[in-house]
Design goal:
Helix content is 3%, strand content 30%. The protein is mainly beta. Among the domains are: 302 residues, Beta-galactosidase, Chain A, domain 5, CATH 2.70.98; 90 residues, Thrombin, subunit H (Beta Barrel), CATH 2.40.10; 163 residues, no CATH class.
Length: 802
């Protein structure tokens, strides 16, 4: 690079102070992180089992806004006004969700020999299962998946919320997003956390062996105490009972009946005893769980079961996904990875969802109808008369939950999903459907290649480019969404609130039995529950469950949206990413607003479509949700796009309607008018609050783009263009509390009477170049009085021409 010419000049403000009647320069504001808006729950029992790790966050990456919690709950009907509880469309204030939670279930035999139906869930408000001493029989967060000094769940677009390192990843993932497909987020916004059900000790069931105390042999001597209860001494000279160590507990020794959760000793003849006391290093005093007589056993096989870690011994890895692309802007996805960390196999396991949707918002939820479609695996709900009297009155949308992937059973020898493959699995080390392609998928265990913005080089473990499918690469094992033998929707129940109640374990189990499709009560405040069962879940194995929260203006619309999402899901979210967001600032003037932004978006790299940035669109509204500009409809009459007030695009021949449409609607790609980085709106009124968004959009892809020189890549999947989302955060009262980097609010006004416009004085006597240029300050308030500023023009060519 050589410096050809430079011009040196001074910008001198000829007044000592710039005074704007409309206030100072409106700088871009960063999003409010809501760091102090939530207080943690308390009052857990003996274990304190991570209850103080409970956190909250918000999904707001497209037209859906909802709060959720890192113990499984989605939304919370007890929030006053429900201002962030399943809002659709975002900014409308119309709430659709009371609360939802995943649940896991199995029927087991307790220490008394009785059948017990154990249900673990993450209920937040309506029907929490509470122990007599006040703690909760439900999911709790797993330590390490969020910043311990922060109140938020880990979110892909907020690195402050991330932990220093991830418990389930090697150290080279530090500072990287823990994505399912690698060290990056495939969706525009993602969330990630883990829960377990160890705190659910409602029943006398013990899934974990006390570390080091399994399948041992000792001497059992029975006796009866003065309290008429049955006891026994267990003696084993080969172990030290005082050295019992557990994973998470309040003590470093075997727990006795002096605590609320004593360990349990199982004798091989199916006798169970609670540990009454540790008498010495080799002797335990045991209390018989049953009141029947005990007998001496000189050589008794025994196992000590952990009294602290209870429930079913499940760990759930939970991920949320949102895209701003028009094809997915009405959808929020949750995936659940259910792993059996216990020491017991399960032959008949159930995964399900409990849901309480209030279509029409709080106050108008008493006339809702619902239905399920087993063919499409969708549960949906609508307002009976399609009118809500809540919040001034509005026409409610349809709401639904769609099964994208149900748990598979790779052990039953049956082709459950009728796809021609029997017992395919995401954990068998086999590319069952044969879609791993070494030409594009051999990226290594971190899932990153040169086409990713986050790529830093080949994997240290040598997996990149080795010609073999490795865990972490696309289209193999857990990154191949359709590589499991799915059971589908096997049960559904819907009834007036509160007839369906997960804390009633026995009744809930009955409702989740496969083939149970109860008659739906209509035109009531509906709650529903659906399940997928039975599947086997051996020790250390996991199964996956994925659902999509879907909205639509009517039933055909919600069905189209759900089908679109299924296609995206089956292709492993191989969905075009919008460009990076520009950072915008604004200057208020007299009946004018000037916006200016950086060129960050132009450096965007799509992992599939490469460098496909196309242009900028500017949206304006007087409401922070940009609802007044959401006016462009598709072929079915459903509102789909916002109408821009200005648009600028690359000069590359891609103009007018895009070749690939969405529901009969094609995006306008511009007029080849060239890129700019500032624009002045001269159609505003002084004193009016305006909101602006500068969004970047990409080229999409059509079959002829390579031949036309629009793309350097050929033979890619055709897709409609995508654009960055636009977010403005509002409080429960509707007050704006935060802006994203590409949104801003401004009120134009006339300057003060004594305001003098800065004058530019340029000194060109020392310049070498022969060209001329003019200077137009975009943001006069940013120019400091008396400062000298230098502009350099650099010639990057090697043609020897100055």
């Amino acid at each position: 690079m050589k410096l050809i010419s430079a011009k040196y000049f001074s910008l001198i403000a000829l007044v000592p102070l710039l005074v704007w009647a409309g206030g100072p320069r409106v700088a871009n504001q960063q999003p409010l992180q809501k760091r102090s808006s939530w207080s943690r729950s308390s009052g857990l029992g003996v274990d304190a089992n991570n209850h103080d790790l409970r956190k909250i966050a918000w999904h707001d990456g497209n037209r859906i806004l909802t709060r959720f919690y890192n113990y499984g709950a989605i939304s919370n009907w007890s929030v006053p006004g429900r201002y962030d509880c399943g809002i659709y469309p975002i900014g409308s204030g119309h709430s659709y969700l009371a609360e939802f939670t995943p649940l896991v279930a199995a029927q087991v035999r307790d220490t008394r020999g009785l059948h017990a139906s154990i249900i673990s869930d993450g209920i937040v408000a309506s029907a929490k299962d509470i122990a007599p001493s006040g703690y909760l029989y439900q999911f709790e967060p797993v330590l390490g998946y969020a910043n311990p000094n922060d109140s938020l769940v880990a979110m892909s677009d907020d690195s402050i919320s991330w932990p220093d390192s991830w418990p389930d990843k090697p150290l080279d993932w530090e500072g990287k997003w823990n994505g399912q497909y690698g060290q990056y987020n495939r969706a525009d916004q993602e969330s990630y956390f883990h829960v377990d059900d160890y705190n659910n000790d409602e029943f006398k069931y013990y899934p974990f062996i006390r570390t080091g105390f399994g399948d041992l042999t000792g001497s059992l001597v029975a006796f009866t105490q003065s309290d008429s209860n049955k006891y026994a001494y267990l003696t084993d000279p080969n172990v030290d009972f005082t050295q019992g160590v557990i994973d998470r507990a309040t003590a470093n020794e075997i727990d006795t009946r002096g605590s609320d959760r004593p360990d349990v000793v199982e004798i091989v003849d199916d006798r169970f005893y609670e540990v009454d006391a540790v008498l010495d290093a080799h002797t335990l005093r045991l209390f018989s769980v049953k009141t029947t007589a005990t007998v001496d056993i000189p050589s008794a096989g025994y196992t000590i079961w952990n009294g602290i870690k209870r429930g079913l011994g499940m760990d759930l890895g939970v991920r949320g996904y949102q895209w701003a692309h028009p094809a997915a802007e009405d959808i929020l996805i949750y995936t659940y990875w259910i792993k059996n960390l216990s020491d017991k196999d399960y032959a008949e396991f159930v995964f399900g969802m409990y849901g309480d949707a209030d279509v029409g918002d709080d106050g108008d939820q008493g006339d809702d109808d619902s239905m399920f479609e087993t063919q499409s695996d969708i549960v949906y709900q609508w307002d009976h008369n399609m009118w809500s009297n809540a919040k001034g009155g509005f026409v409610p949308a349809y709401f639904g939950w769609k099964y994208l992937e149900s748990p598979g059973d790779p052990l039953d020898g049956i082709d459950n999903d009728e796809d021609g493959m029997v017992d395919e699995s995401q954990m068998d080390g086999i590319d069952n459907d044969g879609d791993w392609d070494s030409r594009v998928d051999d990226l290594g265990s971190d899932g990153l290649g040169p086409q990713h913005q986050e790529y830093t080089g080949p994997d240290a473990d040598g997996t990149e480019g080795n010609g073999l499918p490795d865990v972490g690469e696309p289209n193999f094992e857990f990154t191949d969404n359709d590589e499991s033998d799915q059971l589908g929707l096997t049960s559904f129940a819907a009834a007036a609130y509160p007839a369906i109640n997960p804390k009633d374990d026995a009744a809930t189990w009955t409702q989740l039995i496969p083939g149970t499709f109860a008659e739906i009560v209509q035109t009531v405040d509906i709650t529903f529950m659906y399940g997928s069962a039975y599947f086997q879940l051996p020790v250390q194995e996991e199964r996956k469950f994925a659902v999509a929260m879907v909205f639509g203006e009517d039933f055909p619309d919600i069905l189209r949206n759900s089908q679109t999402m299924q296609q995206i899901y089956n292709s492993d979210y191989n969905f075009a990413k919008p460009p990076l967001k520009p950072t915008v600032s604004a200057v208020a003037g007299d009946r004018r607003v000037t916006l200016y932004w950086n060129s960050k978006a132009e450096l965007s790299l799509d992992p599939i479509y490469g460098r496909d940035f196309e242009g900028y669109r500017i949206y304006r509204a007087t409401d922070p949700a940009f609802a007044e500009s959401w006016v462009i409809t598709d072929a079915y009459g459903n509102r789909t796009f916002n109408k821009p007030i200005a648009q600028f695009d690359i000069v590359n021949g891609l103009t007018g309607p895009h070749p690939i449409g969405l529901n009969g609607l094609q995006m306008d790609m511009g007029t080849d008018n060239g890129l700019v980085h500032s624009w002045t709106d001269t159609t505003v009124e002084n004193g009016q609050q305006y909101y602006y968004a500068v969004v970047a959009y990409d080229q999409g892809y059509a079959n002829d783009f390579f031949d036309r020189g629009i793309s350097v890549l050929e033979n890619l999947q055709e897709i409609t263009p995508s654009e960055t989302n636009k977010k403005i955060e509002v409080s429960a009262s509707g007050r704006v509390i935060g802006y994203d980097t590409n949104t801003i609010g401004v009120i134009p006004n006339a300057p003060a009477i004594d305001y003098i416009t800065p004058e530019v004085v340029a000194d060109t006597s020392l310049t070498l170049g022969t060209g001329t240029f003019e200077i137009y300050p975009v943001d006069p308030a940013a120019i400091r009085n008396g400062n000298d500023y230098e502009i350099q023009f650099k010639d990057w060519s090697n043609d020897a021409v100055d």
